[in-house]
Amino acid sequence: MPVIAVVNRKGGSGKSTFAAHVASWCAHQGLAVMLGDIDRQQSSRGWLRRRDASLPAIAPWVIDQKNVLRVPTGITHVVLDTPGGLHGFELSRIVMFADAIVMPVCPSVFDRESAAACLAELHTLPRVAKGQCKVAAVGMRVDNRTSGADTLRAWAKEANVEMIGVLRETQNYVRCLERGLTLFDVPKDKATIDLGQWESILQWLQPVMNPAPAPEVKREPILPVRKPSVLGARPLHETHRNSVLTESRSTILGGKPLNEAGRLAVVGGTQR
C-alpha cells in the first residue's frame, strides 16, 4: 500500500491544499485512496465533508470500537496530511510508514528556514538515508511576478532536496477548496496553467503510487537423489554386515588377497 505523507513543521505552508490535490488525482486514476488527516485543525477532513458524493471517492479514516483510527477496508493508496511542528518520534513514526514525503515550501525566509531544519532531521532517519522513503519539495503560493521560484530552487539545491514543482498563487485553489473540489475536478480549460504546473509533480509521484512489481526469482529445478545401485537400497548396517561377510569369505577362496576377493559384485544382497 503506497503511502505519501505531506510534511512541513510550519503551519500555513499549504500542506492540506497539496494533500487534497494528490488524493483527488489518485481518485481520478481509479485508485481506492484515503486522505488521512492527522492535523489537529482537521482541514482535510472538513474539505472531505464538503466534497460531493458524485465526484471520484476519497475515503477518510474510520474509527474502530477502541476509538482508534484505521485505514478503511479495500483502500490501496494513502495520503497523509500531517500537523505542523512535527519532529522527533512523531516524525520518525511517519517516515516508518511512508514511501515518500513531499514538503510544501513557501518562498519567505521563515518558511525556508523552517523547512531546512525539518529536512536536516529527515536526512538523519535510516529509511530516508537508505532511499527507502523518498523526499521532495514543492514550491507553494509563488507569485509569478517575483523571483520566488528562483529563490526556492536555489534553496532546494543548498538543502539537498529535489524541487519537483512550483505552484503559483491563485484564487483557483481557494475557490475549489471551498466547494470540496480540486483543480482535477473542474474542466481542464478552467485551470490550464495550474494543471500544467502539476505535470512534473505527478511525474515524480507516478512510480511511488504505482510501484513496479518485484522481479520473479528464477529457481533451478531440484533433481532427485539417485540411490547407489551397488547398495541395493539397503540400510547402512546391512551394508556393513555384507562387507564383513565378504572379508571372511576371502579366506575360504584359497587365501586370495582381499582386493581380489573384493571383485565380487553385490547386487540386491546376492553374489555372483
UniProtKB/TrEMBL annotation:
Q: Where is the CobQ/CobB/MinD/ParA nucleotide binding domain?
A: 4-182
Spell out the Gene3D superfamilies in the cross-references. P-loop containing nucleotide triphosphate hydrolases (3.40.50.300)
* Family annotation (InterPro entries): CobQ/CobB/MinD/ParA_Nub-bd_dom, DNA_Partitioning_ATPase, P-loop_NTPase
**Record Pfam families:** CbiA
User: What name is this protein filed under?
Assistant: ParA family protein
Q: What species was this sequence derived from?
A: Ramlibacter cellulosilyticus
